[in-house]
Amino acid sequence: MGEWRVIEDDPRDGALNMAIDKAILAACESGDAPPTLRLYGWKRPTLTVGYAQNIDKEVDFDRCRELGIQVVRRPTGGRALLHNHEVTYSFTAPVPHPKFPPSLQGAYKVVAQALLEGLRELGVKDAVLANIRKVDRRHGSFYSPSCLSNNHHWEIEVKGAKLVGSAQRRTKRAFLQHGSIPISCDRTLLNSLFKHKISGSHTRSMNVLNN
Q: Who's near 157: CB < 8 A, 6+ residues apart?
């Protein structure tokens, strides 16, 4: 299968966005769809939560309702992320595929390098690949349920702060990777949506793509 597909979608409801991505993954896994890059937005601010994350323990639903923020579960892993002023991508490809190594980290690296090249074309010259896993103090003052609170291998950061948060879901015959590319990011607002409150550098807001 040599063809590739790009879908530029309209802003949609959060649950529908996740359902579309799961359908593309299933179609790719069955051989009914080629490798697919989908670019899309959100009808309203939406908090997506990783598939293994404890949503009841970590998300402040009262705060989300107060602000009109929808909460949905992602099919991919990782931690929670607020989608608002951004471009969201999902990329799905069969396993194996000649363009991607068979491992999770290998596929992450290939996608990250493509994203990094695109960001530099847009003028984000300070963007770099993070290749050191930072300490996750789950039971200390630095733990946050936020995707933006720490960097992992092959994620993209600017001046030490995560810019592009990505998460992956792999089956035996395909993988789906989600990613969020913010136009602006209010980390204080994001962190206010959790029961676990944090402070310090993790609350810094970013306005990278508008610089």
A: 127, 128, 129, 130, 151, 163
